[in-house]
Amino acid sequence: MRIAEALSTARKKLSSVDSPTLSAEILLSYVLSCPRHRLITERDKELSPGDREKFFQLVEKRVTHFPLQYITGKTEFYGTELRVQEGVFIPRPETELLVEELIKMLNKEDTFLDIGTGTGCIPVAVLMNKSAAFCFATDINSTALQVARENIRMHRLEERCQLFEADIFPPVDERFDIIVSNPPYIKTSSIASLQEEVKYEPVLSLDGGETGLDAYRRILSGAPMYLRERGYLLLETDPSVLTGLLELARNSFKILDIKRDIQGLERLVLLERKGSSD
């Protein structure tokens, strides 16, 4: 079977998933360990029996909506390749907005805390663009922390990023210039109606409790003890929980800004810790 025939057959099998052509090309380039453009230039090349068998095994797996990123073991975030695996939350393009804002906010030698780091996508993206900044990052998921360590190591950032297996805050006597987080904020009642691909991801990274505010409540209550006076808290959010989040924040924080994503949805909330004179 030629490459062109294999891709055509795979596209038909993958008709029930998003972007079947892209899925087929990514899977075949993964099997052949080649860039996608070679699938075009070598479209008449014959596949070996072993490659053909492996390719269609992966196609059948993808038909079940199993995420491409888990199959290939990698994803791209903010122009950087990251390792990812089953059991770890897959970074979303929306979180790149948080990275952009954080890069703008950080001064030369600032230290920031990333709560719920997952793959370590935020520390990797930010530290690669802010050469003197330092990061602490936490996650309660030990599998995620192992992947984050591998990504930090792969990009040679070990000396500027310290990882902790911790529930929300790290066990350190430290105050940060900025705390960031993309916490779980989906209401428990909405989990069952998520896209099939998303259901393969860890519920711990998705479920924000009955109101979607459980993680926010814990972050907001503890953050003043970990922020320098007038320090900032930058949170990714969703319009469905924004009102509740702002109500929780008002006691200890000033609401400085709400940023919208490229779809026009409220996606980031920037807060400033109130000072003793406020």
Q: What is the overall number of helices?
A: 10
Domains (count): 2
CATH superfamily of the largest domain: Vaccinia Virus protein VP39
Largest sheet composition: 7 strands, mixed
CATH topology of the largest domain: Rossmann fold
Biggest sheet: strand arrangement: 5-4-3-6-7-9-8
Instruction: Give, in order, the helices and strands.
Output: HHHHHEEHEHEHEEHEHEE
Instruction: Give the number of DSSP strands.
Output: 9
**Overall 3D geometry?**
elongated
Query: Radius of gyration, rounded?
Result: 21 Å
- CA(first)-CA(last) distance: 72 Å
Q: Do you know the CATH architecture of the largest domain? A: 3-Layer(aba) Sandwich
Helix share, percent: 25-40%
Residue fraction in strands: 15-25%
Poorly predicted parts: none
Identify the CATH class of the largest domain: Alpha Beta
Task: Describe the secondary structure blueprint for this structure.
Elements lengths: L2 H11 L6 H13 L4 H5 L7 H15 L4 H5 L1 E4 L2 E4 L11 H11 L5 E5 L5 H7 L6 E6 L2 H13 L6 E5 L10 E6 L32 H9 L4 E10 L5 H8 L3 E8 L5 E8 L5
